[in-house]
TrEMBL record:
Source organism (scientific name): Eeniella nana (Yeast)
Top-level taxonomy: Eukaryota, Fungi, Dikarya, Ascomycota, Saccharomycotina
Family membership: In the C-terminal section; belongs to the phosphoglycerate mutase family.
PROSITE patterns, A to Z: PG_MUTASE
GO molecular function terms attached to this record: 6-phosphofructo-2-kinase activity; ATP binding; fructose-2,6-bisphosphate 2-phosphatase activity
Keywords: ATP-binding, Hydrolase, Nucleotide-binding
Record PANTHER family: 6-PHOSPHOFRUCTO 2-KINASE_FRUCTOSE 2,6-BISPHOSPHATASE LONG FORM (PTHR10606:SF44), 6-PHOSPHOFRUCTO-2-KINASE/FRUCTOSE-2,6-BISPHOSPHATASE (PTHR10606)
Protein name as it appears in the record: fructose-2,6-bisphosphate 2-phosphatase
Residues reported in the UniProt entry to bind substrate: 215-222, 267
Amino acid sequence: MVGLPARGKSFISQKIRRYLSWLSVPTESFTQSSFRKKRAESLKFMDDELFDPLNEKGKKLRLLSHQDCMGAILNWFSNHQSGVAIYDGANITRDIRKKIKETLSSSDVQTLFLESYCDDESKVRANIQDINQTSPDYMDKTVEYTLADLKKKIRFYDSFYEPMNVEYEGDCTFIKVLNLSSEILINRIESYLQSRIVYYVMNLHVKPRYIWLSRHGESQYNLEGKIGGDADLSERGWKYARRLKDMAEKYIPNHGSLHVWTSTLTRTQQTASFLPYPKKTWKALDELDAGSCDGLTYEEIAERFPEDFKARDDNKFEYRYPGGESYRDVITRLEPIIMELENQENVLVITHQAVLRCIYAYFMNVHQEESPWMSIPLHTLIRLEIRAYDTLVTRIKADIPAVSTYKEKGTSKLGETRDNSKILAGDVISTGKS
Ligand SMILES: O=P(O)(O)OC[C@H]1O[C@@](CO)(OP(=O)(O)O)[C@@H](O)[C@@H]1O
């Protein structure tokens, strides 16, 4: 990363790390400031000395923390055949970038510089506000403190900042993001992975916003415990479809501009049928294809294909149904959906259990092995609040009972059917954090 403080470098780093990890590319982010803090603590160094351009000790400490960070990156590469290490630091001089490139290329590592250049004061200010509210570095500090501290650092770094340009660094591969917008300059993009990163960064948003998710209403197949298929909604499923309209009006603040996405399957389209908003149907949102097990109950699968049943329980993320899909396959086909969601302002996605797990795992940073086992109940509207440094989740459970479609590891039985008495009157709201 390249850029002055408060230019969204950590935000972009974290997003890229999450995106690539979700696509199964080993990715790690190394934050230079954490190495600097460690060094400063051990040397009993004050921040004031560190950001004084005339202070020789400060200069030395910055150099040491850079070396520590590079050491950690090289060490990480020695343990990984392939992958992406993100150096989250300022790296604002041509000299330091030249050294980074040389060091990495001597270890056979390609370098892609990603500069966040911003001279729009209002955007810098908004970013400082975000940093104050959500960055672990400033969690217990006032806005005034964060503002003063970051301004001091910006002034310091600005005195020797050399933005990237083709004239001086034409031989480098770089992406330059201008004013945290979709305006981007690129130079010498050479590999597929680099082009994925360019495309992803182009779709990124810094504005906080909500994404709304829901499974379809309870289907006839859900009632019978069957997987896959293209069944209609049950009576309670239709009830949820009607309720979803009221819930959208009640909970989605700017529902007037809402867009609804569904899969091509009947149950999601019936669920969306009362919503008076523009709709889009995506094949990519169809449920995980259960291949030759489509239309069976888990008990029938366990009985007829015991080896497959066990193999899926043992490694649910990788297991591919004969003639069907695995969770990994679903993630691959969901990539365009994620790109679009990163770009959109106000969308409600109505889809299926496995697909929602994959989308949820991306936004909530859930580990691959864990994601196929997450609980995504029926008749629940999920609100993801996408913020600069984390995602907040709120689940709004409609008071309409539904069967459980959750199967635990090691059993072929579904979870307990929720009975009416356990459903509280009114919607039940719960929250959590990524
Ligand atoms: O990966 P598991 O846990 O089997 O969950 C996926 C299953 O969920 C189901 C319901 O059991 O999805 P949905 O009703 O949301 O379309 C099945 O169709 C699908 O095969």
